[in-house]
Amino acid sequence: MRLILALAALEGWYLSGLDVRNAYLYGELEEEIYMEQREGFHARGKERHVLRLRRALYGLKQAGLAWWRALKKSMEELGFVNLDSDAGLFKCFDKASQTFIITVVYVDDAIFLGPSKAAVEIMKKRFMERWESRDLGELKEFLHMRIGCAGQNIYIDQAQYLQAVLQ
Fold first, then answer.
1. Strand, coil or helix: what is 103?
2. Which of 104, 117, 148, 153 fits 111 for a cystine, CB–CB 3.0-4.6 Å?
3. Average pLDDT, integer, range 42-68
């Protein structure tokens, strides 16, 4: 992450973030998984039936992998290529603006960055059409790191996070 931020600072790239809402619920399960009906949610006359899960739920061991598969597939559909060296990095060459766009994904948080603000915002918008997300706008915070940009300098600290942990 620090290397990507350093690259963005040196090149003067635009950084924009987003948060995918309920990311794990998007993952489709490849295996057959069944669960008992939750207390208070029994179908009348079918109290002893079990439910087959078709999509992942939070807390399910397979949820992270199922979400990752769905994310990777959608990123490829958007024209991104996943780097072999880091599963959380995607790159894309935007032919319209003739620029590279890099995306860093960590679970359900993502950063889109590149030399063209317009190209970054277009690609982020296309992503948000596929996944319900909260647009965080120009990057100010990521993974409990406060990020500040001033020219070719990027400042990172975790003061707020540390304060919360201490309290």
1. strand
2. 104
3. 85
